[in-house]
Write a structure and sequence with these properties.
alpha+beta, Immunoglobulin-like, five-stranded antiparallel beta sheet, four-stranded antiparallel beta sheet, about 25% helix, globular, membrane, transmembrane helix, transmembrane
Length: about 210
């Protein structure tokens, strides 16, 4: 009898543990708000150097080397959600919608300039595994990172202005290169939790 009771208690504890893990995972992946709460919108255009410099000031814009380079200027804005998540963040992605290539370097500013940076992290790779339109994920952990995205650390940093230069494509180039048509430039927004979990991604343009 005691063995049977012990066995039942053991099974109950295992089931409780499994349920607790499942509940934690559900809560961890639960978005604090959806894309509709932000109402995000984006623009992207080709501009001259003077326009780019003025839009980014006092941040230094990326400079074109010659007339063949294409200067891209973009802007993403959103509404403040009713219940923003502490320590959550956003990623702004500019990519070639045909192959997912990213800019090599992005200059960025915002309503809160100290809350935006550029670089690469694992959030994009996680999002790409769920949203193929963002481009292919890395084949393995040994595959080199290439390109940059914008990380926004505060929901109050809207609007965000970003700029890059598309230089002439080189053989086997791993970053976004020119010449390109504006309609091939995809802009997306990714919502990321405090532990790096990806809640959702939204295609804003193209």
């Amino acid at each position: 009898m005691r063995q049977r009771v012990g066995l039942i208690l053991g099974v109950v504890m295992v089931l409780a543990g499994v349920g607790g893990v499942a509940g934690w995972r559900w809560w961890q992946g639960r978005a604090p708000y959806g894309p509709e709460a932000l109402g995000a919108r984006a623009t992207v255009e080709f501009v001259d150097q003077a326009t780019a410099n003025a839009a980014l000031a006092p941040v230094n814009a990326v400079y074109a080397n010659g007339a063949e380079d294409q200067i891209v200027l973009g802007r993403v804005a959103w509404n403040r959600p009713p219940h923003p998540q502490p320590d959550g963040s956003l990623r702004i992605v500019l990519a070639d919608k045909r192959n997912g290539l990213l800019p090599g370097f992005i200059a960025v500013t915002s309503a809160q300039p100290d809350q935006v940076i550029t670089g690469m992290d694992s959030a994009l790779e996680t999002a790409r595994s769920r949203y193929p339109w963002l481009g292919p994920a890395r084949e393995s952990a040994d595959t080199m990172w290439a390109g940059s995205v914008v990380t926004v650390s505060s929901i109050d940093a809207s609007p965000v202005t970003f700029q890059t230069v598309l230089r002439e494509a080189q053989p086997e180039s791993l970053v976004l290169s020119g010449p390109m048509a504006i309609e091939d430039l995809l802009v997306a927004l990714i919502c990321v939790g405090p532990d790096g979990q990806v809640y959702w991604a939204q295609r804003l343009l193209n």
